[in-house]
């Protein structure tokens, strides 16, 4: 199990990223727009830099929904490899069987 503080920190980052998504994309579109003046684009860059870093989607870590493990996660199931194997062996995941040859 992961530390609860790490999981809570990651959940807080996800909430901030969701909250700030529209504002960040608007500023990024202004920065990328070559038809605007350099001053306007630079001002948008400064505003983006002033926003909290934890509001960025890249700061959110993919963690296992059951254990909170930060590594070896499958995006499709939102589970780490260990939890996925346990659930698959127990028959909890439809269509997934343990391989044998």
Automatic annotation (TrEMBL):
<dbReference type="Pfam" id="PF00253">
    <property type="entry name" value="Ribosomal_S14"/>
</dbReference>
<dbReference type="GO" id="GO:0019843">
    <property type="term" value="F:rRNA binding"/>
</dbReference>
<dbReference type="InterPro" id="IPR001209">
    <property type="entry name" value="Ribosomal_uS14"/>
</dbReference>
<keyword id="KW-0694">RNA-binding</keyword>
<dbReference type="GO" id="GO:0015935">
    <property type="term" value="C:small ribosomal subunit"/>
</dbReference>
<keyword id="KW-0687">Ribonucleoprotein</keyword>
<protein>
    <recommendedName>
        <fullName>Small ribosomal subunit protein uS14</fullName>
    </recommendedName>
</protein>
<keyword id="KW-0699">rRNA-binding</keyword>
<dbReference type="InterPro" id="IPR018271">
    <property type="entry name" value="Ribosomal_uS14_CS"/>
</dbReference>
<feature type="region of interest" description="Disordered">
    <location>
        <begin position="1"/>
        <end position="21"/>
    </location>
</feature>
<dbReference type="GO" id="GO:0003735">
    <property type="term" value="F:structural constituent of ribosome"/>
</dbReference>
<dbReference type="InterPro" id="IPR023036">
    <property type="entry name" value="Ribosomal_uS14_bac/plastid"/>
</dbReference>
<comment type="subunit">
    <text>Part of the 30S ribosomal subunit. Contacts proteins S3 and S10.</text>
</comment>
<keyword id="KW-0689">Ribosomal protein</keyword>
<dbReference type="GO" id="GO:0005737">
    <property type="term" value="C:cytoplasm"/>
</dbReference>
<comment type="function">
    <text>Binds 16S rRNA, required for the assembly of 30S particles and may also be responsible for determining the conformation of the 16S rRNA at the A site.</text>
</comment>
<dbReference type="GO" id="GO:0006412">
    <property type="term" value="P:translation"/>
</dbReference>
<comment type="similarity">
    <text>Belongs to the universal ribosomal protein uS14 family.</text>
</comment>
């Amino acid at each position: 199990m992961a530390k609860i503080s790490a999981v809570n920190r990651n959940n807080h980052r996800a909430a901030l990223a969701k909250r700030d998504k529209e504002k960040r994309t608007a500023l990024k579109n202004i920065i990328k727009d070559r038809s605007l003046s350099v001053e306007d684009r630079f001002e948008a860059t400064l505003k983006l830099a002033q926003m909290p870093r934890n509001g960025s989607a890249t700061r959110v870590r993919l963690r296992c929904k059951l254990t909170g493990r930060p590594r070896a996660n499958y995006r499709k199931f939102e589970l780490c490899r260990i939890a996925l194997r346990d659930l698959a062996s127990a028959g909890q995941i439809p269509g997934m069987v343990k391989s044998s040859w």
